[in-house]
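ingest -> validate -> predict -> emit
validate: passed (alphabet ok, no gaps, 382 aa)
predict: started
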Amino acid sequence: MRGDVVSVKVAHCTPNLDVGGLGQAVIKMTSALATRGNEVRVHVLEPVAVKISGVELCVHPRNGPTERFGTSVSMRQAVQAEASGRADVLHAHSLWTMASVYPGWAVRGKTCRFVFSPEGTLSSWALAHHKWRKKIAWIVMQRQAIAGADCFCVTSEKELEEVRHLGFKNRAAMIPNGVDIPALGLAQRAPGAPRRLLFLSRIHPVKAIDRLLKSWAQLQSRFDDWELVVAGADNGGHLAEMQALAAQLKLERVSFPGLVREFERDALYQSADLFVLPSHTENFGIAAAEALANAVPAVVSRFAPWKNLEREGCGWWTDTQPKILAERLAGAMAQPPETLAAMGARGRAWMIREFSWARAAEMTEQTYLWLLGGGAPPNWIV
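emit:
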C-alpha cells in the first residue's frame, strides 16, 4: 500500500500512563519510536502526571454516565481524526476502557492500520477478575472492536497463546518489551545488614503477594539473616489487606515501604540479594527484567514468560503455591552471596544482549512499515 514509507505517523491510545507496567511500556516504546524519527502522538485519559520525550501527549477528560470505562467525547473525536488521515497507524493498548474501543470503531472503512497490544488483559486470570462486568463488555463491544485489528502485538509466546485461545486468527507481532540498563553501584549495604529478598511491583491481587507472605512464614525462622521488602504502589486498597495478612501470620522482618519513585527504583533493586515475582499472570513481567538489569537474580512465577531464567543461569522459574514457592526460595536464599552475585551478573548480561527499548522500537516500526507497504513480513510476525 505505501511502498515509499520511510517513517510512520502513529497515534497510540491507552487508558493511563501512571500505573505499573502498562504505563512504563507505552512511555518507553513511544519515546523510542520518536527517537527513530517517527511522528508519535499518545492519546490518554486523565489524570496524567508524566511527559514523554519527543512525543505529543494528548490528555482527554472522562465524561458521560459510564466514565469509569473511559468514555470520553474528546478522545473519541481525536481518534476519529487520526483514522481519517492524520495517522498512518492507530495502536491501542490494554482492554476494558474505551481507549481500545474507539480505535477499532474509527478505522472501519479507512486506510489507517490498526494495531492492538493486549498488555496482559487476555490472560485467564485477568478475564476472571471482575468476570461478569468484563463478560458483558466483551460481548457488547470489546471483542468486536479488536477483532478487526490488522495486527496484534504480543510480548511473549504465552501472550500469543492467550490470543489464539480466544479464537483470534489475526497476524501477530511477537516483540518483547525492553528494559533500561542502569549504572551499578547505586546502593551500599551497611555492615551487618540483613540479606534482602525484594518484591517490587504494584500491590495488586494479580501479583499473588499473599502467597509470598505465606511462604515467608515458612522461611523466616530458617533464614534469620534475611529480610523481606514488599514495595510498590497500592492498588485499590490491597496494601492494607497484605499488611493485615502479615500481622495475622505474625511475620517478622517484613516491611511495606509503599510507592517507590522512579529515581529511587534502581537503588532499591541493587540493595537486594534476590528478587521475587510470584504473580498469577504476567504478559511480560517488566519488574523481573528490571531486577536482572540491576544484576539481581530472580525467582519468577511460571505464569510469567521467564522460563529462560534457568537456561541463562540467572534465576528460577517456579510454581507459586506457598509450599512450593517457599521451597524454591529456600534453595535460592541458601546460596552464598558470591553465587547470587554471579547469577545477577549473568542476568544483566542477558538483558544487555537481548532486551532493549531501541530494539523493541525498531521491530515495532518495521511491523508498521510492513502493514503499510506490504511485502514479506518480518520474521517475528506469526
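The chain has a mean pLDDT of 93.
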